[in-house]
Each structure stands twice: as structure tokens, then as C-alpha cells.
């Protein structure tokens, strides 16, 4: 476990170093291009101003205009000025530290979940396929979004250029969409499992499961293509908020409202409806079982195989009675064995139903945590559009990032089978690193 942690930290350091080197190269390239643009602009301004000077003899005005041209061009050269100066340095340091910790935890937890679900047959079911897709989306968020935002907090501004600003925002909205749609698919799966069990095997075949997962990914990223192309809003740097986001295009159109309704509000409504139906079905089932138990208790136990109060005959009748008693005893044994088998079958069914119900409650916890993580940033952008309270926005961003690492924690807390799967993966890994056999690692379980 220790070696695994050290490797993860080393990879994180290397990853940030590569990002920093790439950033310096981009700045150098953009700086050289900016100097050429500035020279061309200044030469044009000088020609124009010399013409103006021939019309009026104000040399002071000429020098002022050239200076203004240079300063305005310098302002245009810098891609994104320091718009996060309203955030204090301790606040940005806290945000950067929290983002890095969330990134490391999210990558480790989601990768561990993927490996555990793939290696352990006990947790490999239909819901596991969607959970793996959810973990992949969260991993992509941690790898392709959080490092850039951490550096943004450290430097106080976005310094990676317009192209990366567009791509990172595209990845951010896409991975969030995949996460919520996967949660929706798992919820629908739980609803069909509990409320329409007879149709479950018809709906959830391998082909259909793969198609559902593909739809989640294609819709989440495909819905953003018009924005990526600048046809319906555009991705860019929001100077007011100091972050990359969706901006209105040249005609004032933006896809934010439609994206919120289609990719967030509608899935949330579907999830709420499904869980309302699930709890109603479970409530009716429990009520029916209680009534059945009461009716069973009210039936008198007057059916007996042998009457102990009956008189026993002598002579030839005793042999007949012996045969009757032996037959009755054998039939009673068969009945008891049948009843025991039925009880075992009922216990297995009850255990399976309890496990399914635990998974259902776990998915509900995942959905509630998702909503709770996204509420603060949504509220802060609605209530405080001018960023008058910077702390509110920083907390909103941290909660938003937290959604990418909180799911594995929920799996550990709420599901025993997932805990066992994690232990299997971790102890097997540790035993290989220490040179032990797989049999020796089972002692730790």
C-alpha cells in the first residue's frame, strides 16, 4: 500500500512538471507571435499618425497616439489578465491544496474501484457496468480538468492559452454529463429490478447495456459540439469569474440554459420519479408481507402425522400400525427436507433482495451527494454574479471537484461486498510487492 501511494505521488509530481513545461513552451510561442503582431500594429499606427501629423502640427499628440497603440496592443497580447485578484492569496492557496488532494484521492479511488469491479465476480453485475463508466468519467475529470484548475489557483489566473481553455471546459462539462447520466441509468436499472422484475432479463442484455453506456458518452460530449464550434455559445475565459466556462457567442447565444435543463434538470427529475416509485413498491411489499405473517400466525397447528392419544391395537393390527408409522415417519422426513430446502431457497432470495436493496440505497446516496456537490457553485453563480463574496465561489468550486472523488468513499461506507473487493485488490497487490503468495494474503482478509 505504501509503495502504491509513493508511486501515485511520484506520477502526480511528474504530471504537474509536464504541465508546467508545456505551459512555458506555450507562453514562449505565444509571446513571439505577439511581438510580431505588436510590431506590425505599431508600424501601421505610426504611418497613420504621421499622416495625421502632416494635417496638424501637434507632435505631442503623435507621441501620445503611438504610446497608446503600444499599450493597447500589449493588453491584447496577454491572453487572460489577472482577473482573480479579488481572491486573496491564502484563499487561492487553500483552493489549490484542496484541488490537488481531491485529484490524488479521486484518481486512486476510482482506479481502485474499476480494478475491484473487474477482478471480483461477487460485485460484477449490471449496476457494476454503469459504475465502471461513472468511475472512468470521474477519472477523466481528475486527470484532464483538476490539474489545470490547481495551477490556475496557484498562479491566480489562467495561463494555458485559449485552446486549452476550450478543451478543458469541454472535458469538464462532458465528464459531468456522463456522471449524471450514468447515475440516471443505474437508478432506472434499480427501478426495473424492483418494480418490474419480469422484464429485467429482457431489458438488460449485454448488447443493450453497452448501448446505454455508449449513449451516455455520446450524448454528453455530442451535445457540446455546437458550442465547441462556436455555433451555439462558445468556450472561453470568463474574466468576471476568473475561470474557463461557456460564454455567449457573437450573436449573444449561449447553450448554458439548455444544457442545464436537458443534461441536469431532466435526469434529476427522472431519478426522483424512479426512487419515489421504488419506495412505494417496497412499502407495499413490506405491508403485504406483514399481513401474510399475521395470517400465518392465526392458523392453528392441528395437522399432525401421528396422533399420540390414539389407542394401539394388538396382534395382526400391530404390524399394520408399524408399517403405517414407518410410512408416516418417512413422509414426514421428506416434508421436513422439502421445507428445509424451501427455507434455504427463501433465505438465498432474501439475501439477494437485501443486497439489491443495499445497492439501491447506495445509488441514492451517490445521487444526493452529486446534487449536494453541485448546489453551492450553482447558487453562488446565481446569487453572487459579481463575485462580491469570493469565499462562496471557492467553496463552490471545491464542492464541485469533490464530486469526482466522493463516490468510492460511499461504496466503502455503504456496501460490504465493495469493501471486500477493495481488500482483495489491495492485499493481493501488497502481497505481490512483498513477495508473498496469494494464499498468504488471504490471512489479512
Write structural notes for this entry.
Pfam families: 7tm_1. Belongs to the G-protein coupled receptor 1 family. The chain crosses the membrane at residues 91-118, 125-150, 170-188, 208-232, 258-280, 362-379, 391-413. The structure is a single chain. The protein contains 15 helices and two strands. The two termini are 15 Å apart. Helix 3 (89-119) packs antiparallel against helix 4. The protein has two domains: 9-78, no CATH class; 86-285 and 342-414, Rhopdopsin 7-helix transmembrane proteins (Up-down Bundle), CATH 1.20.1070. With 445 residues, it is mostly helical. The model is unreliable at 28-79, 303-314 and 436-445 (pLDDT under 50). It has a two-stranded antiparallel sheet. Strand 1 and strand 2 (243-247) form a beta hairpin.
Give descriptors for this structure.
445 residues; mainly alpha; Rhopdopsin 7-helix transmembrane proteins; two-stranded antiparallel ribbon; 2 strands; 2% strand; disordered C terminus
Short recap of the structure:
This protein has 445 residues and is mainly α. It has 15 helices and 2 strands.
* Straight-line N-to-C gap: 15 Å
Reading side by side through the largest sheet, how are the strands ordered?
1-2
And the CATH topology of the largest domain?
Rhopdopsin 7-helix transmembrane proteins
Strands, count: 2
In helices, the fraction of residues equals over 70%
Class of secondary structure makeup: mainly alpha
Rg (CA only)? 33 Å
Pattern of helices and strands: HHHHHHHHHEEHHHHHH
Q: How much of the residues is beta strand, in percent?
A: under 5%
CATH architecture term of the largest domain: Up-down Bundle
* Total domain modules: 2
Can you tell me the overall shape? elongated
**Chain-averaged pLDDT:** 76
Question: Mind describing the biggest β-sheet?
Answer: 2 strands, antiparallel
For the record, what is the CATH homologous superfamily label of the largest domain?
A: Rhodopsin 7-helix transmembrane proteins
Return residue spans where pLDDT drops below 50 for at least 5 consecutive residues. Answer: 28-79, 303-314, 436-445
Main CATH class of the largest domain: Mainly Alpha
* Number of DSSP helical runs: 15
